[in-house]
Amino acid sequence: MPDTMQALVMTDIKQHRLMQAPVPALPGPGWTLLKVKAVGVCGSDLHGYLGHTGRRIPPLIMGHEAAAEVVEVGEAVTSVQPGDRVALLPMYDQGGKGLEKDRLVLGMSWPGCNAEYATWPAANLYRLPEGLAYEQAALAEPLAICVHAVSLAPIRPYDTAFIVGAGPIGLLTLAVLRATGVSTIAVSDTSDVRLERARRTGADVLINPLRDHPRAIVDGFTGGEGVDIAFEAVGAGVTCQQTLEVTRDRGTVIWIGNSARMVEINMQMVVTRELRVLGSYGMTPQDFRRTLQMLADGAIPAEHIIDRRTRLAEGESLFEELLATPEVIKCVINFD
């Protein structure tokens, strides 16, 4: 084992530096040391880099969408061993009570995987199914968010669905819905490039609200009723309102986006039409385990999601590049 490693450190808002840092020691008997193999760049990482959320405080090593190889385990660890290929569930409840103050979040309140090595509790590691590549396994965390969101929806055979946002979460939600009994899925986005990616991922109807009227198009394939279920995957007031407008009376709206703290919506539309509005946050261990098998089985078209690959050495300028090219869906940093 080396004594030092390369790490991409956010040293200040809008500033990344590639630095030599000590390889971390095991924090306790239930922890593991991991050699990072692949890590995805999340939209929340970009927001943190810009200082928009206040949840990522420099100096910090970000990176929570990760797959790795176990290289060392604590004395209390029996679930994994050195050499195991694993994916990391990035939220760890160290108090066991589900309280926010007891929660460690990889790449936010704990050093993340934008580095050659990282530490994480063995309880939050999941072995990769045979044949699943590290790069694809790095999609497990965002995919699990979408599996969790879809699990909240009361889906019936031949229901219709609507997704606002054709970014990573929107496209992965689309892929998960495609594996259910939903009949028709519409996707709305202001980028025609992203809408084309949605078409390739399985969308039946594409809507650009800059030139299309979402409700009019939805009425065309629902007989004027509206969709049964709508998902918001942006986190803005205008897109939250869009989901309310396209959903049928007594339909279900699920908000996944988590950007704007406060949004303005038409409350009377929710009340008088008896809409069921749910928030979806994070995932369960069952969701995470299931996503790994979905990826291994080829149920999720990972090749339509990952469209930028890079190395840690490019990291100092990477975030600025991604902010300048919003058409990129998912960038993965590979270490091998």
Q: Might you state the CATH topology name of the largest domain?
A: Quinone Oxidoreductase, Chain A, domain 1
Uncertain regions: pLDDT < 50 for 5+ in a row? none
Distance between the termini: 17 Å
Number of strands: 17
Class by alpha and beta content:
alpha/beta
What features would you describe in this structure?
The protein has 336 residues and is α/β, with parallel strands linked by helices. It has two domains: 4-138 and 301-334, Medium-chain alcohol dehydrogenases, catalytic domain (Quinone Oxidoreductase, Chain A, domain 1); 143-279, 3-Layer(aba) Sandwich (Rossmann fold). Helix content is 29%, strand content 29%. It contains eleven helices and 17 strands. The protein has helices at residues 43-50, 134-137, 140-151, 168-178, 192-201, 214-222, 237-246, 267-272, 285-296, 302-305, 315-324, and strands at residues 4-12, 15-22, 31-41, 65-73, 85-88, 91-93, 103-105, 117-121, 125-127, 160-164, 184-188, 205-207, 227-232, 247-255, 276-279, 306-310, 330-334. Strands 3, 4, 5, 8, 9, 16 and 17 form a seven-stranded mixed sheet that branches. Strands 12-11-10-13-14-15 form a six-stranded parallel sheet, sandwiched between helices. Strand 11, helix 5 (192-201) and strand 12 form a beta-alpha-beta unit. Helix 3 crosses helix 9. The longest helix is centred in the middle third of the chain and has 12 residues, at 140-151. The protein is globular, with a radius of gyration of 20 Å. 46% of the residues are buried.
